[in-house]
Automatic annotation (TrEMBL):
Chain ranges passing through the membrane: 388-408, 420-447, 467-488
GO molecular function terms listed in the Swiss-Prot or TrEMBL record: protein histidine kinase activity
UniProt xrefs under PROSITE patterns: HIS_KIN (PS50109)
Domain Histidine kinase: 627-837
Name this polypeptide is given: histidine kinase
CDD domains with a match to the protein in the record: HisKA
InterPro entries documented for this protein: HATPase_C_sf, HATPase_dom, His_kinase_dom, HisK_dim/P_dom, HisK_dim/P_sf, Histidine_kinase_KdpD, KdpD_sf, KdpD_TM
Keywords: ATP-binding, Kinase, Membrane, Nucleotide-binding, Phosphoprotein, Transferase, Transmembrane, Transmembrane helix, Two-component regulatory system
Subcellular location: Cell membrane; Membrane
């Protein structure tokens, strides 16, 4: 049922309200149900679509007095699950529906894979939805949460789903208060409290998660403010947050401006620092790219961001950018131009202050202020032969044209003479550039005046009209020559800039992707600049060590090179073949920087690998020592005691006693054998000795053998006979399932069987090992597959290797091991194995 809009213009979309929390237990569900009671008291038609009380009495009490819709019951892999019944909610058509856990993943067989998609359908039908979500379930924060807590959240919701909500309510609780709630049993069951307090719910974790929630919500509020200002066409900035924009030109004063802007931004909490560089509309760099890159790195090190905008007028572009980001202050440097130049045209800083309006402008002095800008000489962009040809045409062309026109006599008039000389000047400009064209114009002007302008034979002009024509001729010739020279120069600069950008982009891409080595970059440097040889040298005692070379006869010492680039304090690049112009220096320096980055990456990778190997070896050694001292000694002591009892001549044992001792001996021997097998498997996995033989096989050949040896009724098999073949190593997968079954049998309730089943899901077959034991908290599940961890098991009956070995072997055979809660309590281990036809 779709509700019509109040204006009758079409269907009304429901409103979404989200209660956002930093961690489980802060009271999101409680606040949502409290809101339901408030709306119900105001006469709103409110129902509860799905609420999970997790055994919390206060939450369950709030459900009383509310209409709770029945849930949809789904059967998956032999077990029953309940989910939100979307068709039932649509049929009931309430004004508001309460739905808990927005990031929840639905059981296969549901209408949608995720609950937020169910909510989308209800909103489209015009039903308002109130829901809950934790900050750790937001997709963009998933990696940050894992880095903080060590737990990867498997259930996530796209950020835009929450950002697009009509209302977001932050449910906040101080870390100490949340830990008290947890300790009092108001969040988790009693057996989960200690582990939760010492792991996920540490004060540091909760504080960091709380900060993430506040910052994420602050960004959303900032987005809403920006949208409101745009929709209402509010151009003047609203100082809701301090934003400092620093205008940089790439000049030497930029570092001073950035540091001053950073100090200003640090005066207020939550401030932002933004640097902006205006690029000319022709796209060509107005400052050395290397200098811009340095200032970009400086901004990022100061915690700010660097932005490049294109604009024809620098002050207007800076002010427009500042208004667009809702800046409160613009930091700009005092002009480097002298005062007499400012008298002709005001400086950028002065013009920015005039245009800024309500934005504060902070003018910063520096060492280069009022020093004047040094104009660098520039050569012609044309080649040498072309310039020579231009001078020849400029000197001989006017003379030859004068002889030709003189021979024609009165057949041509003065206007035609002017047009022909102008065409000659344009030709000279196209061939030789600016100065040959100027000379050609002047010579042509003099010849026209002497030979073709009355009175002839004199450098005087009788008619004012002729004087004007000659003057226009000279100006047009000079203007055309200047435009041609400028176009040639810009073309050369554009080609060069494009080539440099392409080369730098290529090496940056390869370095960031980890594809290039130092030797590859050395070869690319030689190829790019057509050098004879390039060598990478490192200081070694009193001499130099060659790290990489490319080309013929490379320099083995910096003294033998024609150019030397410094990579760092210990290494240099030696170039031989030709002397490179100064204009190539910035690209060469970029190459040197990339070589330094590659060398540093190689060093860090080597150190990380060495540290990983040493860490694994140390952890294994420590665990083995603990195992030998306890876990291995216990079965050995039992075996020794049983053997002594059986062989002793001092004891009078009957048949029952001997049977009991033999049984104990067998049990301890089997336990010792399992421990040794797991240790050997773990050693093989860590050394990379496992070599799986993958082939198409049936689970009928694997699963039954993995559950042998258990008492009748301890394990129940539910493996259909018509399952398709899987692509795996049968022997190794059998060990995986056997370890999982052993773990499940050890933790299942007494008298309750462990169920081992399998089902086809998409292109995979999923083997499920289900127990009804105590289960594992969500924040501990990620550590289940680490070696030498019993995860709260204090029985001392194992090394904690079974799941680690199972995970390693599953990875080796191309399977994936995961875990989920068993409905009603317990744990379900999932082994996802690809189908044989999919692998083929």
């Amino acid at each position: 049922m779709i509700r019509p809009d109040e204006g009758g213009a079409g269907p009304r979309r429901g409103r979404l309200t989200v209660y956002l929390g930093a961690a489980p237990g802060v009271g999101k569900t409680y606040a949502m149900l409290d809101e339901a009671h408030r709306r119900l008291s105001r006469g709103t038609d409110v129902v509860v679509g799905f609420v999970e009380d997790h055994g919390r009495l206060a939450t369950a009490a709030l459900l009383e007095g509310l209409e709770v819709l029945p849930r949809q019951v789904l059967t998956h892999r032999g077990s029953e699950f309940t989910e939100l019944d979307v068709p039932a909610v649509l049929a009931r058509a309430p004004q508001v529906v309460m739905i808990d856990e927005l990031a929840h993943t639905n059981v296969p067989g549901s209408v949608h894979a995720k609950r937020w998609q169910d909510v989308h359908d209800l909103l489209a039908a015009g039903i308002d939805v109130v829901t809950t979500v934790n900050v750790q379930h937001l997709e963009s924060l998933n990696d940050d949460v894992e880095a903080i807590t060590g737990v990867k959240q498997r259930e996530t919701v796209p950020d835009h789903v929450v950002r697009d909500a009509d209302q977001i309510q932050l449910v906040d609780l101080a870390p100490e208060a949340l830990r008290r709630r947890l300790a009092h049993g108001n969040v988790y069951r009693a057996e989960q409290i200690d582990a939760s307090l010492t792991q996920y719910f540490r004060v540091g974790n909760l504080t960091a998660l709380r900060e993430l929630a506040l910052l994420w919500l602050a960004d959303r509020v900032d987005d809403a403010l920006t949208t409101y200002r745009r929709d209402h066409r509010i151009e003047s900035p609203w100082p809701a947050r301090e934003r400092v924009v620093v205008a940089v030109t790439g000049g030497p004063e930029g570092d001073t401006l950035l540091r001053r802007g950073a100090r200003i931004a640090q005066r207020a909490a939550g401030s932002e620092l933004l640097a902006v560089h205006v690029l000319a509309t022709d796209g060509l760099p107005s400052a050395p790219p290397a200098r811009i890159a340095e200032q970009r790195a400086l901004v990022e090190s100061l915690g700010g961001t660097f932005h490049t905008v294109v604009g024809e007028d620098v002050p207007s572009a800076v002010v427009d950018f500042a208004r667009g980001v809702n800046a409160t202050m613009i930091v700009v440097g005092v002009s480097r131009r002298s005062r007499w130049k400012e008298a002709v045209r005001e400086s950028n800083g002065t013009e920015i202050a005039r245009l800024a309006g309500m934005i504060d402008v902070h003018l910063v002095t520096h060492e280069r202020a009022r020093a004047g800008s040094r104009r660098t000489g520039r050569g012609s962009a044309l080649s040498g032969p072309r310039r020579t040809a231009g001078w020849v045409v400029a000197l001989l062309g006017p003379v030859l044209l004068t002889l030709l026109l003189s021979a024609m006599g009165e057949l041509v008039s003065l206007p035609t003479d002017l047009m022909l000389f102008l065409a000659l000047t344009v030709l000279v400009a196209l061939v030789g550039g600016l100065w040959p064209a100027i000379v050609s114009a002047v010579v042509g002007f003099l010849l026209l005046n002497w030979f073709f302008t009355l009175p002839t034979g004199k450098l005087t002009i009788a008619e004012p009209e002729n004087a004007l024509a000659l003057g226009v001729f000279l100006l047009v010739a000079a203007g055309v020559a200047s435009v041609v020279d400028l176009a040639a120069r810009r073309t050369t600069e554009a080609f060069r800039a494009r080539a440099e950008a392409s080369a730098l982009a290529a090496i940056s891409r390869s370095v960031l992707s980890g594809e290039d080595t130092a030797a590859a970059l050395v070869a690319r440097l030689r190829e790019t600049f057509t050098l004879e040889a390039v060598s990478l040298l490192a200081k070694s005692g009193s001499g130099w060590e060659v790290l990489a070379t490319d080309g013929v006869a490379p320099a083995l010492d910096p003294e033998a090179a024609q150019a030397v680039l410094v990579v760092d304090d210990e290494r240099v690049l030696a170039l031989t073949g030709r002397v490179l112009p100064a204009s190539d220096r910035r690209v060469l320096e970029a190459f040197a920087s990339q070589v330094g980055i590659v060398l540093e990456q190689e060093r860090l990778r080597a150190q990380a690998e060495q540290a990983r190997i040493l860490g694994q070896a140390d952890a294994t050694r420590t665990a083995l020592l603990a195992a030998v001292s306890h876990d291995l000694r216990t079965p050995l002591a039992t075996i020794r005691a049983s053997v002594d009892g059986l062989t002793s001549t001092d004891l009078d044992l009957d048949d029952a006693d001997r049977t009991a001792l033999v049984g104990t001996l067998e049990e301890s021997t089997a336990r010792l054998e399992r421990l040794i097998d797991n240790l050997l498997d773990l050693s093989r996995l860590q050394t990379g000795s496992v070599r799986p033989v993958l082939r198409a096989t049936s689970l009928d050949e694997i699963v039954p053998f993995a559950v042998e040896g258990y008492p009748p009724g301890a394990v129940v098999l539910d493996v259909p006979d018509d399952l398709p073949l899987v692509h795996t190593d049968p022997g190794l997968l059998e060990r995986v399932v056997a370890n999982l079954v052993s773990n499940a049998v050890r933790h299942a309730k007494a008298g309750s069987p462990v169920v081992v089943g399998s089902v086809v899901v998409g292109n995979d077959v999923v083997v499920r090992v289900v127990d009804d034991g105590p289960g594992v908290p969500d924040d501990v599940k990620e550590h289940m597959f680490a070696a030498f961890q019993r995860l709260g098991d204090t029985s001392g009956t194992g090394l904690g290797l079974g799941l680690a070995v199972a995970d390693g072997l599953a990875t080796a055979v191309g399977a994936e091991l995961s875990v989920e809660d068993t409905p009603g309590g317990g744990l379900t281990m999932l082994v996802t194995v690809p189908l044989a036809e999919t692998a083929a």
